[in-house]
Amino acid sequence: MNAGNETMLYRGGVVRTMSAHSGGEPRHDTLVTRGGRIAGVANDSDIRALAGKGARVVELRGATVTPGFVDHPPHLFHFSLLTYPLVKLCDALSHDDIVARVAHRAGRPDRVR
């Protein structure tokens, strides 16, 4: 998002506010920011007036926006992206157990001793 003084209207996607309430998370498709800060979240028809005529429009084309993740710790992505291909061995019971786990992860269970 833009950190300047510009008003931005992000529309045509899914805005995930992470607001939990009894009815589940409300569905929004538009986000307005001013000066890099959230000014409002709603559906496009309800929020255009808040943005004003001079707002720069960004078409999300169905993409998901998660406002509020600013300078998040990189381990959020580390654990989800980097550890997926790894084989968990910390609780392996033997060498054969390690070989079996690696072979299974590699899609080659026939390589198990």
Describe the fold and architecture.
- The protein is of the alpha/beta class and 113 residues long.
- The chain folds into 2 domains: 7-65, Roll (Urease, subunit C, domain 1), CATH 2.30.40.10; 75-111, no CATH class.
- It has helices spanning 44-51, 75-82, 95-105, and strands at 7-15, 28-34, 37-42, 56-59, 64-65.
- Strands 1, 2, 3, 4 and 5 form a 5-stranded mixed β-sheet that branches.
- The chain is elongated, with a radius of gyration of 23 Å.
- The model has no long low-confidence stretch (mean pLDDT 80).
Which labels suit this protein?
alpha/beta; Urease, subunit C, domain 1; five-stranded mixed β-sheet; 3 helices; 24% helix
Sheet with most strands: 5 strands, mixed
Helix and strand sequence = EEEHEEHH
The number of E-state strands comes to: 5
Beta-strand residue percentage = 15-25%
* Low-confidence blocks of residues: none
The top-level CATH class of the largest domain is Mainly Beta
How is the quaternary structure best described? Answer: single chain
Distance between the termini: 53 Å
- Summed up, the helix count is 3
Assign the CATH architecture of the largest domain: Roll
Class from secondary-structure proportions:
alpha/beta
Shape: elongated
* Helix-residue proportion: 10-25%
So, the CATH homologous superfamily of the largest domain?
Urease, subunit C, domain 1
**Cα gyration radius (Å):** 23 Å
The total domain count is 2
